[in-house]
Amino acid sequence: xxxxxxxxxxxxxxxxxxxxxxxxxxxxxxxxxxxxxxxxxxxxxxxxxxxxxxxxxxxxxxxxxxxxxxxxxxxxxxxxxxxxxxxxxxxxxxxxxxxxxxxxxxxxxxxxxxxxxxxxxxxxxxxxxxxxxxxxxxxxxxxxxxxxxxxxxxxxxxxxxxxxxxxxxxxxxxxxxxxxxxxxxxxxxxxxxxxxxxxxxxxxxxxxxxxxxxxxxxxxxxxxxxxxxxxxxxxxxxxxxxxxxxxxxxxxxxxxxxxxxxxxxxxxxxxxxxxxxxxxxxxxxxxxxxxxxxxxxxxxxxxxxxxxxxxxxxxxxxxxxxxxxxxxxxxxxxxxxxxxxxxxxxxxxxxxxxxxxxxxxxxxxxxxxxxxxxxxxxxxxxxxxxxxxxxxxxxxxxxxxxxxxxxxxxxxxxxxxxxxxxxxxxxxxxxxxxxxxxxxxxxxxxxxxxx
Length: 451
Prior knowledge:
Residues 54-418 form the Amidohydrolase-related domain. This is Amidohydrolase family protein. By secondary structure, the chain is an alpha/beta fold. The chain folds into 2 domains: 3-57 and 371-424, Urease, subunit C, domain 1; 59-353, TIM Barrel (Alpha-Beta Barrel). It has 16 helices and 18 strands. It has helices at residues 80-95, 98-114, 129-142, 157-160, 170-181, 195-198, 201-214, 260-268, 277-283, 290-295, 314-335, 347-353, 356-361, 395-402, 428-431, 433-447; strands at 3-12, 20-29, 32-37, 46-49, 53-57, 59-65, 117-124, 145-150, 187-193, 217-222, 250-254, 272-275, 301-302, 305-306, 379-383, 408-413, 416-420, 423-424. Strands 1, 2, 3, 4, 5, 15, 16, 17 and 18 form a 9-stranded mixed β-sheet that branches. A 9-stranded parallel β-sheet has the order 13-12-11-10-9-8-7-6-14. Helix 1 packs across helix 16. The chain is globular. 54% of the residues are buried.
């Protein structure tokens, strides 16, 4: 039995029964959190000194396209409906070879771990079964806990988008699950659905039925930008044909233009929402769905979305999402000539949306998302004694507002240390780095896009 004690840290458990503890220990055995308390026995255990550190659950990114990592830094000035759809979905994704899918996913996963995200939903566009296999290999080799989400292939935008009548490649998905995912404790299967925004009613329902048959999470891009124009499905309204099929196994990415009535219907059915605030504000998706979901009694989650445009750091999404919501909530009072005297979303709220709420959206709330005995030990440690973080009067506010990735100096996934003293331990960081860069350069060169 492997045994680890994280010793004398400020524990932000995000478990309401445990709360926040000063100078506390976390005992981990065989990847499971066994006990949280003071003065726990260190017999036969590796001891990790957490003094002057904040100890909390790893972040959960509920929506990201990891394979875009080697083309990072190209989409920061792109709009969604023009450059992104034309250049990324209509061009670059079709150029990916299986090794490109592997290298993008590998370094995307490593970036996630370096920045404190221990779980991510990786929304993938595998051109072939081999692309999907190598993308899953990347997640495994990175050491990330992940929902590999098999979406429409990226080889033919006209075939897979624009009111498509072609269903997801069922046999490829079944083969990938059986061969690569079923027996891996860190991996689970998701299906990346287009929904009635982008495919026919029959196709949308058939894909969701397939996900349910496989016991897979359904992640659907819906309700952003002007996807309801005649170029796509001009008969689509709200959830369209999926309205009677919603449930807790459905996660909606974006949802910016859903009405409050639509959101209420979805929340009542148990649907989760992934807001990706930085990308949504840049690319023209619309106002993040945060406020509508909260008004409906739900709890949204955060995601990065496209690493071709922005950093994979989840603390940025926590801040941007929180402060954007506050700005929008404050503005009506200011316009009425009233002073803002209370904020309706807190630092702890946004941290929960990046941890336990993300875990709930991915169907993992009984495994991860809080430091709770019986859950898996996905844990991060934040240096609270750096000149940029000390004195950490409020541990939660320090994590949300003050830190950068370098302050996350220790990361554990399933009890295994993957980042120690600020350095990732995975040799792939250096061993595969040149291939990673070469992959990105080739994709951009072959795409012919003008940067």
